[in-house]
Amino acid sequence: MQITQIFSSKFYSTPYPATMKPWKVMIITTAIVMAILFLAHPWGEVTWRENLYVTFLTGVLTALVESIFYFLLPRIFPKWYDREHWTIGKDILNTIVMLFAIATTIFSFFVVFFRMPTSWEVIGSYLLYFLLVIPFPTFFAYLWQQNLILQRNLKLANDMNERILQTSSTPECREEVEKTISLQDGKNNNFEFSPSHLLYIVSDGNYVNIVVEKEGKSESRMVRSTMKNVEELLFEEKSIVRCHRSYLVNLDKVQMVTGNALECQIHFKDSSDTIPVSRNYRPQILNQVKG
């Protein structure tokens, strides 16, 4: 990633999937925060028992605040925390607010229960200390998660590409009479297509955009239907599966799959279009390509 990309709005709107469960991230980051605070003991010179006790309390507070951001807020604001639409920008903003909440909670705890003297200088230095310390485990968790995403996406891409290569080198017997699907477009005209010519289908509200291969080129038609209805019509077509909440793909038309630290992308033989592979549908796709 280039430094200039950080200043691009496109960078912050880039999808940012999560690989680890929230409780795992919470445990890892809390443990690192406790380790750093135990070694630094910013509360002054104390015995190691007192230092351990205060560090434990700080870790509990950190975990409580994190649990609010990982479990409570997603229930209150499900649209904002929808993982299918989670982006780098949302993750950065959520992390900044969470760090500030953790620092404020710990500071308030020490003021109330340990009678810590308060002044603008003390408040400023204390919050600054925690805002400088806490990002280290957060950054570590971010790098770890990015590496996990990269490895997972590369594995999926390799598995699918191997299967595609095997399938392309194995001749298959096709029925002479091809099945035809008929749907009505927005102008009340019937649109017919053969599942064997289908590339992919993408949903758009009460419509679906059907992209098919015709004479080596891709053509699309918007028809009034739901993804669920189309999926039921194509139920018998084992090569046509969901790869995303908004996409159906014909695996027989896939040329290759690429993966990076953000996502996996499906590429087609007869089109320059690419479509994403959602985390939730990857097991289904792997089972299909391995079948």
What distinguishing features does this structure have?
disordered N terminus, alpha+beta, single chain, three-stranded antiparallel beta sheet, 10 strands, five-stranded antiparallel beta sheet, 291 residues, 8 helices
Can you characterise this structure?
The chain is α+β, with helices and mostly antiparallel strands. The protein is built from eight helices and ten strands. The radius of gyration is 26 Å and the shape is elongated. 20% of the residues are buried.
Write a short abstract of this structure.
This protein is of the alpha+beta class. The protein has helices at residues 9-12, 22-40, 48-76, 88-113, 120-133, 135-169, 227-233, 282-290, and strands spanning 181-184, 190-193, 198-204, 207-214, 217-224, 240-244, 247-250, 254-259, 264-268, 274-277.
